[in-house]
Amino acid sequence: MPRHRITQADVATIAGVSQATVSFVLNDSAPAGVRISAETKQRVLDAIRITGYSANPAAQRLAGGLTQILGVFTYESTFPRSGRGFYGNFLVGIEHAAEQLGVDILLFTSARVVDGRRQLTRDGWQRLGVADGCLLLGQQEDRGELQHLLDTNYPFVFIGKRGSDRGRLPYVGADYVSATTRQIERLVALGHRRIGYVGLRGTDQPTLDRIEGYRLGMKERGLTARFVELDDVGATAAEIVDQGFTAILVAPENYPDELVDEVERRGTRVPSDLSVLLLGQPHHPRPGGRAWSGFSIPREEMGARALHLLSRLVAADTSRAGTRRPQPPELHQMLACVDVEGSTLAARDGADHRTEDA
After folding, report:
1. Would strands 332-335 and 275-279 be described as parallel, antiparallel, or unpaired?
2. Which helix (H) or strand (E) holds 19?
3. Source organism's superkingdom (predicted)?
4. pLDDT tens for each residue of 27-36
5. What pLDDT does 126 receive?
6. Can you name the residues that pair with 133 across neighbouring β-strands?
7. Partners of 118 in beta bridges
8. In whole angstroms, what is the distance from residue 158 CA to residue 164 CA?
9. Cβ-based neighbour number of residue 31 at 10 Å
């Protein structure tokens, strides 16, 4: 796949037809006396699907100029039925940045959510062409779709750290590794030694980074990393108590409220017996619930910084300009997370229940 913005000429070459024929198929009309067979039409449609070509009618009306519209595509539902939801703060930051840049934001929602997830390949490719570039958010992204956007040189930025071939994928992420390591330092300074990590061992980037930060922090302090898989909340709470942990780290998506409820039902008090640090804000906090200690993710800043980066990528796009402009210097931007004091962290009194091994 050529690394340039796909044009009608590219579609015509793949389909083995003239560029005029591609235009006739796209417009679903042909001049008098011109007949396009069903087979030829299907070849053009297949080429459009394979390349992800978008006619971009808004840009055509502006004779190839920029639309000053930037898109936002989320792989999960943007507006939840209850609560503010995961994306709220990101969208606030994006809106503020859009005001500063003087651009409009288009939220792509036409792709249906199937099994909790959207895909660009479900009617999304053609829509992207309406915007000059797009922000992508989500925990269940399709790596093949991201690679396609890179290969076709469509300007986009992912909100959240993501790996890619030769590091070409632009993103603005949160530094979970350093933030998690810092929580170990906070606990050790308060006398904790038996510190566990509780949660699902997924392969998503935030989970991988949190686990890396936990392992690194424990190793630097000469402590043994201990993991408790989250399956049944009650069984997990029982294992936490049985293991004799004095502190645990929990990711916000791993039901922290329910978990602490079950721990306290077993006679272990938080934070006097067990400190609990949350590795990010709770996804669905309880009204009047616990004030969690741990760290917060700079979601508003991530949204704003991502839109600024996207605007620079669009400006550097050579497909609509006669001269090459320099690429932005930082395609990968990592933002620091902020420690939160909260009320679920306390000093450890006395010795651990068990001797810490090396």
Report:
1. unpaired
2. helix 19-27
3. Bacteria
4. 777 777 678 8
5. 62
6. 70
7. none
8. 11
9. 7
Let me know how many helices (H) and strands (E) the chain has, helices first.
12, 12
- The pair of structure tokens assigned to 106 is 């288009």
Distance CA 239, CA 234 (A): 9
Closest CA to 137 of 188, 171, 111: 171
**Residue 58: alpha-carbon gap to chain centroid:** 28
Query: What gap in Å lies between CA 52 and CA 70, rounded to an integer?
Result: 18
Question: Do 276 and 256 meet the contact criterion of CB atoms below 8 Å apart?
Answer: yes
How is residue 22 written in tokens? 């591609």
Q: What is the CA radius of gyration of the chain?
A: 25
Neighbours of 201 (CB within 10 A): 11
Distance, in Å, from the CA atom of 184 to the CA atom of 213, rounded to the nearest integer, reads 9
> Residue with structure tokens 């070849």?
43
Below-70 pLDDT ranges, the chain: 1-6, 33, 52, 54-66, 78-86, 111-116, 121-126, 317-329, 350-358
Structural contact between residues 112 and 118, judged by C-beta atoms closer than 8 angstroms: yes
> Residue 226 forms beta bridges with which residues?
196
In this prediction, residue 8 carries a pLDDT of 78
Which tokens is 16 given? 């083995």
**For the whole model, what pTM was predicted?**
0.76
DSSP 37: -
pLDDT in tens, 98-125: 999 999 999 887 766 666 677 776 655 6
The amino acid that residue 236 corresponds to is: T
Domains plus CATH for the chain? 8-51 (no CATH), 59-154+299-335 (3.40.50.2300), 176-296 (3.40.50.2300)
**In one letter, which amino acid is 127?**
R
Looking at residue 17, what DSSP letter applies? S
In contact, 11 and 46? CB cutoff 8 Å:
no
DSSP secondary structure letters along 144-206: HHHHHHHHTT--EEEES----GGG---EEEE-HHHHHHHHHHHHHHTT---EEEES----SHH
Residue with tokens 């408790």: 228
Task: Find tokens 């602490």 and name the residue.
Answer: 260
* Cα 139 from chain centre: 5
First-to-final CA distance of the chain:
52
CA distance 285 to 151: 40
